[in-house]
Design goal:
It is a single chain. The chain has one domain. Helix content is 68%, strand content 1%. It is built from 14 helices and 2 strands. Helix 1 runs antiparallel to helix 8, helix 5 runs antiparallel to helix 6 and helix 6 runs parallel beside helix 11. The longest helix is centred in the C-terminal third of the chain and has 28 residues. It is globular and about 50 Å long. The N and C termini lie far apart (40 Å).
Length: 352
């Protein structure tokens, strides 16, 4: 009961902070979005040149450093890796493709719903379908194999990179790119965004907050612990949006979203399926990276590269809807993810 109360409080705080970040300047319904923020960072570093989505998001830096510090303090920082790293890179890439066709990660999907965007209902249905598909393979022995203990330096490198990004953001060297229009130009003040990220990172580390894990555990074990946290995110974000005047109920003219139901569904189906195979949603991958999980670091790098690839090759959707290239990329990604799932079951069977 004590743990459940903790995740409800944590989810409520995440929802409130997400709503307040929009109030203070973040793009609408984007208090937090792991996929969108990694895409913006990729743009700021010049990995893609879409000039409306380029900014080093301090929320990501805060998430990593908050989780890292709390993991160190609670003696839960454990450096490990070696579990099918390249497969994880590819799956991270694939998850990002699905997210950018939908226009948001699972956390933003919940926040879009909390802002009144009913298109996210199709995303939620697809996300759940993807999780069901992933569970099918889990029940048949899917595994990306065991991890191995690594030296502590490996675990410190990812937080150090994020400190480097923070220094870049504070000094704004000439080789970085920053949007002067579009979603990348909309952001809360640095101190507010960084503080919110630090707090959410710490909360997510302590409660294991994960949307894909919540639905997975509900289906497999009838365990409502994790899903309760996301229900709290939704309720408190919705209340904050209503209070701040940022609630707009409907399908049409929703901010940084499109109303192509089929591709909202399929994009998030891909995200759900890939996240199940990876063992966690994009938010959870960031938190695990901060705790010393190098496989999750590889996954995050895969998402970063996926974001750059999506914008360099016209795969990301826009308010006008998904692109033809994006649709093809989603279909190819399904094939690749299925191959990874099937081949890993066969390896397990052979070894047995």
């Amino acid at each position: 009961m004590k743990e459940r109360k903790g995740i409800i409080i944590a989810g409520g705080l995440v929802g409130i902070l997400a709503g307040l970040l929009v109030f203070f300047g973040n793009p609408p319904n984007m208090g937090f979005c792991i996929a969108c923020f990694l895409r913006d960072i990729a743009g700021s570093l010049g990995l893609h040149r879409t000039d409306v989505v380029q900014y080093i998001r301090p929320e990501i830096i805060g998430l990593v450093l908050g989780a890292f510090l709390i993991a160190l303090g609670k003696k839960e920082f454990s450096v490990k890796g070696g579990s099918s790293p390249f497969a994880r890179f590819i799956l991270g890439f694939i998850v990002m493709i699905g997210a950018l066709v939908f226009l948001g990660c699972p956390l933003r999907m919940v926040l879009r719903l909390a802002g009144g965007d009913l298109n996210a209902l199709l995303g939620l249905a697809g996300f759940t379908a993807g999780i069901f598909s992933g569970i099918y393979f889990l029940n048949r022995g899917f595994s990306l194999r065991r991890t191995y203990k690594l030296g502590k330096l490996e675990g410190f490198l990812f937080p150090a990179v994020n400190i480097g990004l923070l220094i870049f953001l504070l000094t704004t060297p000439a080789f970085l790119f920053f949007s002067i229009k579009g979603p990348g130009s909309l952001h809360a003040p640095l101190a507010i965004a960084l503080s919110a990220g630090l707090l959410v990172g710490a909360l997510a580390q302590r409660t294991r907050l994960c949307m894909v894990g919540g639905i997975r555990d509900l289906i497999l074990f009838k365990d409502t612990y994790l899903i309760t946290g996301f229900l709290a995110v939704f309720i408190f974000a919705a209340l904050t949006n209503l209070f701040c005047g940022n609630f707009n109920l409907g399908f049409i003219d929703q901010p940084i979203a499109h109303n192509d139901g089929l591709w909202n569904f399929l994009g998030m189906t891909l995200v759900g399926f890939g996240s199940i195979l990876l063992g966690g949603c994009p938010l959870r991958q960031l938190i695990l990276s901060a705790e010393g999980n190098i496989d999750s670091v590889i996954t995050v790098i895969g998402m970063l590269v996926g974001a750059a690839f999506a914008h360099n090759f016209g795969l990301a959707a826009s308010a006008a809807g998904p692109t033809f290239n994006g649709k093809i990329a989603v279909l190819i990604s399904f094939v690749v993810a299925l191959l990874i799932a099937v081949m890993n079951i066969e390896r397990e069977t052979t070894d047995a």
